Amino acid sequence: MDESDPIPALKQQLGDELVAHIGMWNQQVAASAIGTDQPRMSDLDRNRLDRFSLETLVRFLTRIDLRVEINVVQVHASGPRMFRVPSRPRSTNNSRED
Q1: Which of 3, 12, 16, 27 is the most buried (most CB within 10 A)?
Q2: Are 41 and 31 in contact (CB under 8 A)?
Q3: H-type helices in 1-98, by residue range?
Q4: Contact 25, 33 (CB under 8 A)
Q5: Cα 15 vs. chain centroid, distance in angstroms?
Q6: CB under 8 Å to 31, separation ≥6 — which residues?
Q7: What is the rounded CA–CA span in Å between residue 28 and residue 36?
Q8: How far, CA to CA in Å, does 26 sit from each of 23, 58, 74, 93?
């Protein structure tokens, strides 16, 4: 897994929460509760999270009365990275007619 891409880890976290709350239910009942069908519930049970978007997983969780919160934290201890945007070169045309 590419560590620079946080999406797979986020999907895993959401998928784990979902299965922890409804994984013991009958697949048909669980699918109905989250607003999907039994084959999609089977995908969740088998951890096939590449078949779901983050948005879909969040919606599934909210349908069983769970709230998803997102926190943004600083990763680099040295503070925010500063990026310098290069300025456009100024015209060197100094020939003005007075």
Answers
A1: 27
A2: yes
A3: 7-22, 27-34, 38-45, 54-63
A4: yes
A5: 12
A6: 37, 38, 40, 41
A7: 9
A8: 8, 21, 41, 77
